[in-house]
C-alpha cells in the first residue's frame, strides 16, 4: 500500500516550509509594490549596495543564487525603470559594472522598511529564534549537499 504524501511527516514539514516561504514572498510583493519594485529587484538592489564597486552580474547572481541570464534580464528591466546604470569597466573593458541611480538608491532605502518582518519574527521568542536558525542552516546545508555544492551562499 502506498502511503499518502500528506500523511508523511517529512513531506508535511516540507509543505509547511513552502507555505511560509510563499506567504512571506506574497507579503513582500504587496509591500514593495507601493515603491514600484519586485522582491527580485529589491534583492538585486541589496546585492549592489553590499557589493559596491564589485557589483557585476556574475557576483549578483552568486549572491542571489540565480542564473547569470536571469540576473541580466532583471538588470535590463531595472535599467529601463531607471533604478540602475550599467557600464563597462574602464580598466578591464570586459566587466559590466552595475551601480544604483538616485532613483534606485531611494527604492532600496524604501525596501528596507521591514517593520512587518519584525512583527512576524517577534512571534518567536529568543530560544525559538535560535533553534529556527540552526534548523534552517542544517536544512540549507543538506540541500546544498544534494545539489553537489560545496560553497555556501554569501548571505546570511
Helix content: 55-70%
Total number of β-strand segments? Answer: 2
Number of helices: 7
Subunit organisation of the chains: single chain
CATH superfamily of the largest domain: Winged helix-like DNA-binding domain superfamily/Winged helix DNA-binding domain
Proportion in β-strands: 5-15%
Tell me, what is the CATH class of the largest domain? Mainly Alpha
Query: How would you write the strand order of the largest sheet?
Result: 1-2
First and last CA, distance: 43 Å
CATH topology of the largest domain: Arc Repressor Mutant, subunit A
Structural domains: how many: 2
Structural class, from helix and strand content? mainly alpha
From the alpha carbons, calculate the radius of gyration and give it in angstroms. Answer: 19 Å
CA-based shape: globular
Question: What is the makeup of the main sheet?
Answer: 2 strands, antiparallel
| CATH architecture label name of the largest domain | Orthogonal Bundle
| SSE order, one letter for each helix or strand | HHHHEEHHH
Report on the structure:
- Helices cover 62% and strands 6% of the residues.
- With 156 residues, it is mainly alpha-helical.
- The chain folds into 2 domains: 5-123, Orthogonal Bundle (Arc Repressor Mutant, subunit A); 124-156.
- The chain has a two-stranded antiparallel sheet with strand order 1-2.
- The longest helix is centred in the N-terminal third of the chain and has 25 residues, at 9-33.
- The mean pLDDT is 89.
Amino acid at each position: 500500500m502506498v502511503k499518502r504524501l500528506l500523511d508523511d511527516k517529512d513531506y508535511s514539514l516540507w509543505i509547511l516550509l513552502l507555505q511560509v516561504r510563499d506567504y512571506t514572498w506574497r507579503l513582500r510583493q504587496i509591500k514593495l509594490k507601493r515603491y514600484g519594485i519586485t522582491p527580485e529587484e529589491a534583492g538585486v538592489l541589496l546585492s549592489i549596495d553590499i557589493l559596491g564597486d564589485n557589483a557585476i552580474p556574475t557576483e549578483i547572481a552568486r549572491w542571489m543564487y540565480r542564473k547569470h541570464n536571469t540576473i541580466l534580464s532583471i538588470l535590463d528591466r531595472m535599467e529601463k525603470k531607471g533604478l540602475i546604470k550599467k557600464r563597462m569597466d574602464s580598466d578591464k573593458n570586459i566587466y559590466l559594472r552595475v551601480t544604483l541611480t538616485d532613483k534606485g538608491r531611494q527604492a532600496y532605502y524604501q525596501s528596507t522598511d521591514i517593520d512587518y518582518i519584525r512583527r512576524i519574527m517577534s512571534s518567536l521568542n529568543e530560544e525559538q529564534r535560535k533553534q529556527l536558525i540552526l534548523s534552517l542552516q542544517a536544512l540549507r546545508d543538506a540541500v546544498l549537499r544534494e545539489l553537489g555544492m560545496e560553497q555556501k551562499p554569501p548571505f546570511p
